[in-house]
Amino acid sequence: LNRLTAGYYQNPNNPYSKENTESLAYDLNGNITNLYRTSVIGGNTTATVIDNLQYTYQGNRLTRLDDESGNPSGYEAVSSFSTAINYDANGNMTNMPGKGIMEIQYNYLNLPKQINLDQGGSPFTSSYMYGADGTKVKKTTVSTVSGHQSSITTTEETDYLDGFQYLHKETVSSGGGGNPGEIFPMASAERAMEMEAYSVRPEDTTTISLKTQDLQFFPTAEGFYDYTKDQYIYSYKDHLGNARVSFGRTSAGVLEIVDSNDY
Fold it and tell me: What are the extents of the domains in the chain?
């Protein structure tokens, strides 16, 4: 069936370490039933199992995904949630708790209108608005991150207008009680895989508005114009129209690559 069943990477300096290996198994319909991966973590030279994924299907539809490796370095999942995957009558996925996707709601065009996430105590909601033809015209995200003294709710509204993209962002801090300007680390921002820090003010509720609706960028024949950075971005695209490399000039006139996708 011309299916990939295994792949091996050997370090030239230590070819017997088998630092990165991958093997796959399939059912008769070509669906992946098992994915096994090993990798070196944290600069070690000994390979560690990072994935041992078991796929369960019903009518060629994935209904469960379990990682028996017990290692979060590979497949990232919220371990306290179910690994089941559910669908509606139209075949749209309605939730995947193992990835923190608690609910997906759809409109009459079967387009997602609201997605509710829970990344281990950090709720995140993303809502979408479309035109009658299904073109997305607006996205609203609301995220809440709690610290040791307060919680911060960030609302971002993105408007799409014929290639022009506008953003309005508002942050509300609830709680406080610390010293003015005190910085404290927040829970891990799971969607970015980074730690974030905010300034806590002594007021119980502080609203911080970052400008009015701001133009972010608009398309050009060669790429797009980054309005926030006052910079033209040029893109090399493949035969399918995907941008593989995007580059522009810095304020000093030096060329720099701002994005690359060599997949």
Answer: 1-75, 103-216, 220-263
